[in-house]
């Protein structure tokens, strides 16, 4: 299990974090997502053997935002 | 009863916009999520139906958007908000005798709310990421709980819960109304006052939230700019009201007071002539008249404030320098004793909202 920080710059209000964090329900291998509107980033705790950064970035894009590895 | 009507009208006008500014972010984005889910479902259903019937005629997106079901989460949000604030009004009224806000506390509150609003407006304009710290992020356990509930099919839970949650992020006008609710000193009157006020804000909330969904993302961007400008203006207004309430010469209201003094006075109920020792001031529905009173220095003075069918906030009369705060009757006269003042003293007076002002000048 690793923790990685991703920059998500296009969140425009505090409730965007709710949508970004919603990816944790859809991605097996992701334990927890903690997004911060103020910092413009999210911290993802995930199992590297089950899921990679590319899938996480794609899931964030599906939720309507742009993520990039910090 | 008159107080309730004033509360309702305040909600309908300034309250609606001001509350939208503070609570709008929480409301709009949450409702947007709710509505988008419904919208996606409707579009999918429509596409499926179209494929099945092979109608071939392309239906417009706006028709889907105009579906009445879109209104349900907004109404639920508003009902929850109304209930929560009515309960809050009940509690504030009951605690009225204990939690009396003095003038300075209210002034500081107004200035703090003004700075909060200015910060939020600058955040919405994307001036600098630092202004993001002006936004209130709901606690993670709450957002996670709401998200899970919403995903489990309890889609009406989120707007209900968030509506009730707005009780923790009241806007400037709501806070002023909360202060009035405390002032009633009665649980039932406090509840009725907050009910009338929040009921007044509801149409603005509903129309704006509904239209935002109808307008779509592109127009929403422009709409949010409009909201940001409105917050900016209201924020400046709130700071100015706070400064006025403190009796600060830095407030715009006090700075332009002398210019105003040259203008014709407001039409008001006839009052006796002031003689420098006994002063008469009319508190009307549009402010105080005369705006400038001249009193004799080094002599104790009596100020008589006269009301005649006055229903506006000019009834909440404040003299910051004396720490005097009086709720005037709708019709009648209240006497305030002013100790001797040195020559050249300028003593501002104002309503408790900092909207209507005037001053007493002590001449030799």
Fold topology:
The complex is a heterodimer of chains A (about 70) and B (about 375).
Chain A: E1 2-8, H1 16-21, H2 23-26, E2 30-36, E3 41-46, H3 53-62, E4 67-69
Antiparallel strand pairs in A: 1-3, 1-4, 2-3
Chain B: H1 2-53, H2 61-65, H3 71-94, H4 103-124, H5 140-151, H6 157-165, H7 172-184, H8 187-245, H9 252-255, H10 257-261, E1 278-284, E2 287-289, E3 292-296, E4 301-307, E5 316-319, E6 324-327, E7 332-338, E8 346-351, E9 357-363
Parallel strand pairs in B: 1-4, 3-9
Antiparallel strand pairs in B: 1-2, 4-7, 5-6, 5-8, 8-9
Helix pairs in contact in B: 1-6, 1-7, 1-8, 3-6, 3-7, 3-8, 4-7, 4-8, 7-8
Structural descriptors:
heterodimer, A: 70 residues, alpha+beta, Alpha-Beta Plaits, 4-stranded antiparallel beta sheet, 3 helices, 4 strands, B: 364 residues, Immunoglobulin-like, 2 domains, 5-stranded mixed beta sheet, 4-stranded mixed beta sheet, 9 strands, 56% helix, elongated
Written description of the protein model:
The complex is a heterodimer of chains A (70) and B (364). In chain A, β2 (30-36) and β3 form a beta hairpin. Chain A is 29% helix and 33% strand. Chain A has a 4-stranded antiparallel β-sheet. Chain A has one domain (2-69): Alpha-Beta Plaits (2-Layer Sandwich). Chain A has helices at 16-21, 23-26, 53-62; strands at residues 2-8, 30-36, 41-46, 67-69. Chain A has 70 residues and is of the alpha+beta class. Chain A is built from 3 helices and 4 strands, in the order βααββαβ. In chain A, 37% of the residues are buried. Residues 57-68 and 262-267 of chain B have low confidence and may be disordered. In chain B, the strands form 2 sheets. In chain B, strands 3-9-8-5-6 form a 5-stranded mixed β-sheet. In chain B, strands 2-1-4-7 form a 4-stranded mixed β-sheet, with no helix packed on it. Chain B has helices at residues 2-53, 61-65, 71-94, 103-124, 140-151, 157-165, 172-184, 187-245, 252-255, 257-261; strands at residues 278-284, 287-289, 292-296, 301-307, 316-319, 324-327, 332-338, 346-351, 357-363. In chain B, α1 runs antiparallel to α6. By secondary structure, chain B is α+β, with helices and mostly antiparallel strands. Chain B starts with a helix and ends with a strand. Chain B is 56% helix and 14% strand. Chain B folds into 2 domains: 2-245, no CATH class; 258-363, Sandwich (Immunoglobulin-like).
